[in-house]
Amino acid sequence: AAHHSYGVPAWCGRETHVVVSSYSGSTAETLSALRAAVESGASGCAVASGGPLLEEAEGAGWATLRVPGGAMPRYAIGHLTVGALLPLGAGPHHFVDRLDVGASVGSLRERVTEWGPDVPGAENLAKDIARRLQGALPVVWGGPGVTGVAAARWRSDLNENAKVLAHSAVLPELDHNEIVGLGPDGSAGRPDVPIVLVCLRDVDEDPRVSERFAATLEEVRAGVSDVVEVRPRGAGPLERFFDLAMLSGYVSVYLALARGVDPTTISSIDRLKQSLSGS
């Protein structure tokens, strides 16, 4: 189970193995989780580039994994993802041992030749999607598993790199709530803002999810100005996730440049951290 707040869930205890991950090693929520997990008697591993997280984990007798530092946290997603997966187990039948990271990296490098800045817009998927998102509210939908996680990544990349408000949701859950707001029932009084729907569709999508995508799009299509459909490439779930994550990185940076904003700065987050540091 994933936990994204202070402390740890009530069920965390001596039989729980916890992986805490923070690129800087000083994220307040992650430090709180580490301390609560240690107090509960749980075992675990800390993943960071340095900071008090590694120091406190080592002091508690936990395993630690130091990833390379010097990058912006959102651009260290590869180090943090693999770093968090490695402590989860070992053995010939374990998921982590079946990850062919080298092959995935080799395949993903090919995307740079397709989506990089030297590739003109007419031939560049990332530039084309960024163009279609200009002046619009991006709504990113995924399905269970890889595409649902990737949808959240698209939202955060669009937030931090392009500095735009974005939304993400996952089928089938959004069929029980979101379609009411985006469909015809929510049209009265809706703000006059173009909405571009980005649908992330996996190659081995459950047929029932495929059926839901088709029916849901039919229900909401009149309320959106454009629909972009993306299917990842890759031999396994990790590679397909990173295919989508790399694409969102390129799209969000191209959108930032089109909007005339710096994709590297996160001034709002910096100000918030400064404000909270004295509390």
Report on this model:
The chain is α/β, with parallel strands linked by helices. The strands form two sheets. It has a four-stranded parallel beta sheet with strand order 5-4-6-7, with helices on one face. 44% of the residues lie in helices and 13% in strands. It contains ten helices and seven strands. Strand 2, helix 2 and strand 3 form a beta-alpha-beta unit. About 3% of the residues have low confidence. The longest helix has 23 residues.
Q: What is the strand and helix layout of this fold?
A:
Layout: E1 17-21, H1 28-40, E2 43-48, H2 51-59, E3 63-66, H3 77-85, H4 101-115, H5 125-133, E4 137-142, H6 146-160, E5 167-170, H7 178-182, E6 195-200, H8 207-220, E7 226-230, H9 237-259, H10 267-277
Parallel strand pairs: 1-2, 2-3, 4-5, 4-6, 6-7
What is the radius of gyration computed over CA atoms, rounded to a whole number of angstroms? 20 Å
Secondary-structure class: alpha/beta
Order of helices and strands: EHEHEHHHEHEHEHEHH
Task: Walk across the major sheet and give the strand order.
Answer: 5-4-6-7
Unreliable stretches (pLDDT < 50, length at least 5) are 90-98
Strand content of the residues, in percent?
A: 5-15%
**Largest sheet, described in full?**
4 strands, parallel
The CA-CA distance between the termini, in Å, is: 30 Å
**Helix content estimate:** 40-55%
What general form does the structure show? globular
Number of helices: 10
Average predicted local confidence, pLDDT: 90
**Number of DSSP E strands:** 7
